[in-house]
Backbone:
């Protein structure tokens, strides 16, 4: 088994963050996606349409990431993406969350996701039949992931 880098996925958070507050499962934070860019050897495009992260912050200091959105490739395909994962809510993440000029490096926190892609476009059918893992970081305008295909 190997990991093959397939893309860098950058999601821009914009349009507001809603915080329903503490509930029975933790603190829910809903961050709307307002765009983004996907770059790779086999796929390039932009994040478009409805999308958000329905983050759930638990009492254990970890956020449960739950993101959904769409990629429109440079050659016109539409790819749905959903990923679940874990984000360590440490001091670096806290600082980046309140300071719009702060960001984290990939090693500053445990931030891992498992992206799942769906498309009906045959040029990107490989996305439907592969398992992916990603490492994330907080960027000044949202989040960025290095996405790897598991072979």
Residues:
């Amino acid at each position: 088994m190997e990991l093959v880098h397939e893309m860098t996925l950058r999601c821009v958070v914009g349009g507001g963050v809603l915080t329903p507050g503490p509930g029975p499962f933790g603190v829910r934070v809903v961050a709307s996606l307002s765009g983004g860019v996907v770059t790779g050897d086999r796929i390039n495009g932009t994040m478009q349409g409805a999308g958000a992260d329905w983050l759930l912050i638990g009492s254990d200091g970890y956020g449960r990431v739950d993101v959904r959105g769409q990629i429109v490739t440079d050659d016109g395909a539409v790819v749905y993406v959903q990923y679940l994962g874990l984000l360590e809510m440490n001091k670096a993440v806290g600082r980046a969350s309140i300071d719009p000029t702060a960001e984290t490096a990939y090693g500053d926190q445990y931030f891992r996701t498992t992206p799942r892609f769906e498309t009906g476009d045959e040029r990107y059918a490989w996305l439907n039949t592969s398992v992916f893992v990603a490492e994330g970081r907080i960027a000044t305008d949202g989040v960025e992931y290095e996405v790897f295909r598991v072979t």
